[in-house]
Amino acid sequence: MFNCKFCLKECISNNSHRNHERCCPKNMNRIYVNGMLGKVSHKKGKTKKNDPSIMQGAIKLKERYTNGEIVPHRTPHTKECKERISAIMQTKMQNRYTASKRIEYKGIRFESSWEYEVAIELDTNNIDWKRPSPLLYLDNNNQQRRYYPDFYLPEYNIYLDPKNDYVKKLDEIKIKQVQEQNNVKIILLGKSQLNWGSIKNLIEGFA
Question: What's the CATH code, domain 100-206?
């Protein structure tokens, strides 16, 4: 764990920890990059939706790509390359190994402190749980995908998946597809719902 001594923000590596502390807003001796001290970008808060000039620029850029005036510096992956990458990622996900921060508990690698907290809560309350296998489903393009829930509770026949509000909204359609196509129940847990009391109430309300 790497926590900023100024704002206590958790960083994923020693390198990111050093860089964050160097520029942390609460560091009285912080280092400002490119002389931006006290300056605000003229584009701050602007998007294609609320600024006509940005929208026009995006349209022109798209046209230049379409017309071949601008050539992407990266060529698209070949079918064989995509299949090779997919096979590698499947192996990594089966072992729950990604590039994100990990916490090990009882020989299991958790990808976030939320998952670890839920595991502790379940064990403290003598609730049997497993790290489930991925659930297969078809997305909106009829392509087969894998969904990796974090916990399965055999006694309740239900899956648990701690997620922040942004990811919850992002995965809303996917979760619905997984539940309907696999005939399973999945409960997404927010930051305030990681304790067993809240989890139990959600399970009872899901029945």
Answer: 3.40.1350
pTM score over 0.85: no
Q: How far apart are CA 126 and CA 195, in angstroms?
A: 13
Neighbours of 121 (CB within 10 A): 17
- Which residues in 33-55 are b (16+ Cβ under 10 Å) and which e? eeeeeeeeeeeeeeeeeeeeeee
Residue 155, phi-psi category: left (phi > 0), alpha (psi -120 to 50), beta (remainder): alpha
For the chain, the structural domain boundaries read 1-32, 100-206
What is the four-CA torsion angle of 142, 178, 113, 201, rounded to 10 degrees? 160
Instruction: Find residue 10's DSSP bridge partners.
Output: 3
In the structure encoding, which two tokens stand for residue 186, read together?
């999945």
Sorting pLDDT into bands at 50, 70 and 90, what band is 48?
confident
The predicted-structure confidence for 119-150, as pLDDT tens digits, reads as follows 999 999 999 999 999 999 999 889 899 999 99
What whole-number distance in Å separates Cα of residue 153 and Cα of residue 200?
A: 11
Tokens of 85: 């990458």
Q: Are 191 and 185 in contact (CB under 8 A)?
A: no
